[in-house]
Design brief:
Elements lengths: L1 E9 L3 H9 L10 E8 L11 E6 L2 E11 L3 E10 L2 E12 L2 E12 L8 H26 L1
Antiparallel strand pairs: 1-7, 2-3, 3-4, 4-5, 5-6, 6-7
């Protein structure tokens, strides 16, 4: 399983950054997400625990379930289905920073195909995940900086 970490400071207050990142519907404004929508609402918060989102990106399709949700602080998720077939999870953590909000987005992902998880394929999965997450944070930064 490959691990990708994207660490970025967004020059906006933490509550605004959290609100933007918690709503996957906004991800479509990024250059790496073609379509994002919610399939099910969360138990306590609309985008919270048990909410299910669908993302179509330049690298594939993902159905993710929110597994942890601490307003203003963090979001965790697990990939429930994907094409190409991958297994994985992710966690977004927000921290105060002198320039705004530090976002640390970590992802653990691997191809769910025997013999393909390592080597060049594993490297491509990691690079794709890094590009996808960076693109989402680029869009958040652009929208929130204005």
């Amino acid at each position: 399983m490959t691990r990708t970490i994207v660490d970025r400071v967004i020059s906006a207050p933490r509550p605004l950054v959290f609100t933007w990142l918690s709503d996957a519907g906004r991800y479509s404004s990024s250059s790496t997400v073609l379509r994002a929508r919610w399939l099910a609402a969360g138990a306590r918060f609309p985008f919270g625990v048990h909410a299910v989102r669908s993302l179509i990106s330049s690298t594939g399709w993902f159905r993710e379930e929110i597994t942890s949700y601490v307003p203003g602080d963090s979001i965790g998720y697990v990939i429930r289905a994907a094409f190409p077939p991958v297994r994985g999870s992710g966690h977004v953590r927000l921290l105060d920073d002198a320039q705004g909000t530090r976002v640390v987005w970590s992802s653990h992902i691997e191809l769910a195909l025997p013999g393909w998880a390592h080597g060049p394929a594993g490297y491509l999965v990691q690079r794709s995940a890094q590009r996808l997450l960076s693109g989402i944070l680029d869009a958040a930064e652009q929208e929130l900086a204005t």
